[in-house]
Amino acid sequence: MKFRLAWAVVACAAVISLVACAKQDSGSRATDTQPTSSTLSGTIRIDGSSTVLPISEAVAEEFAKVHPKVQPTVGKSGTGGGFKKFANGEVDITGASRPIREEEDALCKQNGIEYIEIPVAYDAMAVVVNPQNTWCDSLTVAELKKIWEPAAQGKIVNWSQVRPGFPNERLVLFGAGTDSGTFDYFTAAIVGKEKASRGDYTGSEDDDILVQGVSRTKGGLGYFGLAYYENNQDKLKLVAIDNGNGSVKPSRETVLNGTYQPLARPLFIYVSVKALERPEVAEFVKFYIQNAGKLAEEVGYIGLPENVLALVKERVERRITGSAFGAHGSQVGVKLEDLYKIEEASEKGAQ
């Protein structure tokens, strides 16, 4: 049953996207499912966001211990690249660091791919500089826009142009590739429109490449999911963001209390309804939802609150298809609880 949400009713709600700093050794992971003599077998094809990748890899690793005859394969084509493969039936599940967009939804419909949207964790985007950068401890949202907007291309090329008092140091930019959901969300949150960005920067869907670029360049500045900063703190310097209410660094606490705005967001997986008919995929998705909270925190994110998790489980159990975001892509400041409660009420009202 397809649900269409008038997303504007909640577009101004405060986000409660959260990031986790807690990490544990993967060898000591505890999940809700204990090893059994499973008879499940098959291959599960997973692709998509490099931001969601660490969560999916952790889930796949733990799932394979419980169901050794099932082979979950996890790729990272970026959010946009993953949606292309998903809509063409090449993968069963795709990870996304933003909601699906209208054209991606249309391609799914064209190819007969029904899907369920499943939030799995919260994230925040980290803005980072090289550790040798002694002048930049924080940036305002307006300064970030000045750096990244299309009009800055070929013009804002020196740190001294960003703020009076910054040194005469070449500004070298590293950011998400255009197929990345991180790129879509960052441009929507900072510039005001998805994909509105200068093009003269080093872009990649592989966040490790961005980490290397900033860490090796004195005048470097970049952005990516906070988990990649957490895993490379010795190579990078975290920049606080000032949205007009003071400078705030991303952390579990600042995203929990809603002060790290506008660079906080939910993360998703999308699963094909047809793929869910296969017992190994159905069991994998169930396992993902049950354990994503714990495993997400181990790799640098935070799990969903219990009230959101309950609504997510219901989406899968009732096979509620489509996007609660109305297939409008990145939306800044949207509250998951509001979206899914409205969806749930509408679904029940239609019965």
Describe the structure using short key phrases.
single chain; 351 residues; alpha/beta; D-Maltodextrin-Binding Protein, domain 2; nine-stranded mixed sheet; three-stranded mixed sheet; 12 helices; 14 strands; 21% strand; elongated; disordered N terminus
Beta-strand share of residues:
15-25%
Count of separate structural domains: 2
Mean pLDDT: 86
Q: What Rg do the Cα atoms give? A: 20 Å
* Annotation, overall tally of beta strands: 14
- Distance, first to last CA: 10 Å
Helical segment count: 12
CATH class bucket of the largest domain: Alpha Beta
* Assigned CATH architecture of the largest domain: 3-Layer(aba) Sandwich
List the helices and strands and how they pair.
Blueprint: E1 19-23, E2 42-48, H1 53-66, E3 70-74, H2 78-87, E4 93-96, H3 102-110, E5 115-129, E6 138-140, H4 141-148, E7 172-176, H5 181-191, E8 202-204, H6 207-215, E9 220-225, H7 226-230, E10 237-238, E11 240-242, E12 247-248, H8 252-256, E13 264-272, H9 273-276, H10 279-298, E14 299-301, H11 306-317, H12 336-350
Helix pairs in contact: 1-10, 2-3, 11-12
Question: How would you portray this structure in words?
Answer:
This protein has 351 residues and is an alpha/beta fold. Helix content is 35%, strand content 21%. It has two domains: 7-123 and 264-350, 3-Layer(aba) Sandwich (D-Maltodextrin-Binding Protein, domain 2), CATH 3.40.190.10; 124-256, D-Maltodextrin-Binding Protein, domain 2 (3-Layer(aba) Sandwich). The chain is built from twelve helices and 14 strands. Helix 5 (181-191) links the parallel strand 7 (172-176) and strand 8 (202-204).
